[in-house]
Design a protein that fits this description.
By secondary structure, this protein is mostly beta strands. It is built from six helices and 32 strands. Strand 4 and strand 5 form a beta hairpin. About 10% of the residues lie in helices and about 30% in strands. The protein is globular. Strands 12, 13, 14, 15, 16, 17 and 18 form a seven-stranded mixed sheet that branches. Strands 3, 4, 5, 6, 7 and 8 form a six-stranded mixed sheet that branches.
């Protein structure tokens, strides 16, 4: 007595097994499945952390489809049952127009924090996708065990009825011993849990509560941040997060802690797609929280600012300049030079004549949101700097880094928001914020421009050796102190060649803080 599996194969494009090649597996149709990528002569999965339609577009175009209908998460297509290939890529971030996934930002190959249930997949746009069917003929009441192919060694076989540019691929669908499909994993079951906000003064704010095991509980607020609040407001249909609260501002001290820590990138659609470091799954598994009054809460809003950096101005105004420490006296008060300068000041009698080499550039920060960008602190808390004769409304408005080819920081700088104002506005927009008027902020449709000749608009590169493999990274609102619609365009990263006497930028792109390693 035998079980005969009749596998209906379908025509697919030839995928030569070379570095970076892609494959879809587990889908019912030829245009869908979990994504496998080929690296070091082995096929591996991609983690669904930060996986969205932009990455899906790159995959689908690479496979010859017109585009992507959607990105899928949580091992939606149950890839190859019991066989678990390793994860090759995690924290993948594409802009959507790259030719290959290998051109996108990601962690090092093989570095990840994912489980098998977090495999990423796609559904590609196709007019007539081919149905992949499996017909089972059983002559005994007890099915025999079928062998699942090793995903590292899936072999294509020639078919005489295909053209030269197509082959057929063998696909198997393993069943459990009782003949039923594979059980739904925990990550899918968790979506059944309900979430609500309670204790707020209005429907847009309150503590977060999760319904688990017949009871409502709360999230520990110790490490609850803006990114997590963004996802929570999004999931509840309350648009955007304006503030996150870490203590029981909205009550809930006596509630059970359901989640100990949640880590989100801000791009997830719901809390369950975030990383959960502790979860109360049953009796005896109490979640630890530093204090009972650490309860996560949110304040949501319909409108927010959304900042973005101008790459063109950055590239056009990049330059080097040498200045003495005497000329940089005010800048030294604001820690705008490297640590070696302060050592020289302490140890050398002629420190004021020591030259520093500065990498200067201009920044054009545009507000493309639906509300003004204003400092978090009220005016009475702004810090007055006598040397420059201005207020600092934010201690760090922009952070600058130079990274080597291994991602190590070799130099850094920062810019305090000493004068957030409307320097240039789009047609039909009026300037409102002005340093001379005592107000600070950036109106909707307006830009605040820091030219390269302004103090601290630089990185001190005096101690940086020449190299062709640097990256310049500029991050606005780096501490996420002011809420924005999205932080996905707050970081500019460029390849940088520094000869010691000249500097060149290339391959600049916008991204979010989730791409930072």
């Amino acid at each position: 007595m035998y079980v005969l599996l009749v596998l209906v194969a379908c025509s697919v494009k030839i995928l030569a097994q070379k570095e970076g090649d892609l494959r879809l597996v587990g889908g019912e149709y030829s245009n869908q499945g979990n994504v496998l990528i080929y690296h070091k002569q082995k096929w591996g999965l991609i983690c669904d952390d930060m996986w969205d339609r932009r990455e899906a577009k790159v995959v689908c175009r690479k496979l010859g489809f017109k585009g992507a209908d959607r990105a899928t998460h949580k091992n939606k297509f149950k890839h190859l049952g019991e066989v678990t290939p390793k994860f090759w890529l995690d924290n993948l971030y594409c802009r959507g127009f790259e030719k290959d996934l290998t051109n996108c930002r990601h962690l090092e190959w093989g570095i990840h924090n994912c489980q098998f249930r977090e495999a990423a997949g796609v559904v590609c746009t196709a007019d007539n996708p081919i149905l992949l069917t499996t017909t089972t003929t059983t002559t005994t009441q007890r099915p025999t065990t079928t062998t699942t192919p090793d995903p590292d060694n899936l072999q294509f076989f020639n078919d005489t009825n295909t053209t030269n540019d197509t082959r057929k691929v063998q696909i198997t669908r393993p069943l459990q011993q009782d003949g039923s499909p594979s059980a739904r994993d925990f990550s899918e079951q968790v979506e059944k849990y309900q979430m609500r906000i309670q204790g707020g003064r209005n429907p847009l704010e309150g503590r977060l509560e999760i319904y688990v095991g017949g009871r409502w509980g709360v999230i520990c607020g110790t490490k609850w941040g803006m990114m997590e609040a963004m996802v929570a407001c999004k999931q509840l249909g309350l648009s955007y997060a304006k503030y996150n609260t870490k203590i029981s501002y909205f009550g809930g001290d006596s509630k059970d802690k359901i989640f100990g820590e949640i880590k989100c990138t801000g791009r997830e659609k719901n809390i369950y797609q975030c990383q959960h470091h502790e979860f109360l799954q049953g009796e005896g598994n109490d979640v630890k929280c530093e204090r009972t009054n650490h309860v996560a809460g949110i304040m949501c809003t319909k409108v927010l600012p959304d900042l973005s950096l101008n790459i063109t101005m950055l590239k056009e105004h990049i330059r080097l300049e040498d200045l003495t420490l005497q000329q940089l006296a005010c800048s030294m008060e604001e820690n705008c030079v490297s640590s070696s300068a302060y050592k020289i000041k302490k140890t050398s009698r002629d420190w004021m004549y020591n030259y520093r080499r500065l990498l200067r550039f201009s920044s054009n920060v545009f507000n493309n949101g639906t509300a003004p960008f204003e400092p978090l602190e009220p005016r009475e808390r702004w810090e007055w700097h006598q040397c420059h004769m201005h207020y600092h409304s934010m201690s760090v408005f922009t952070h600058y880094d130079i990274l080597d080819e291994h991602g190590n920081r070799v130099a850094e700088g920062h810019k305090a928001s000493f004068c957030l104002e409307d320097v240039h506005c789009e047609k039909g927009r009026e300037k409102y914020y002005s340093c001379q008027g005592g107000t600070q902020g950036i109106s909707v449709g307006c830009s605040d421009i820091y030219m390269h000749d302004i103090d601290c608009q630089w990185i001190d590169v005096t101690d940086v050796p020449a190299s062709d493999h640097y990256r310049l990274r500029i991050h606005i609102n780096p501490e996420n102190l002011v809420a924005e619609i999205s932080y996905d365009d707050n970081v500019v990263t460029c390849d940088m060649v520094y000869t010691g006497f000249s500097v060149t930028l290339s391959n600049c792109y916008l991204s979010g803080p989730h791409t930072l390693q």
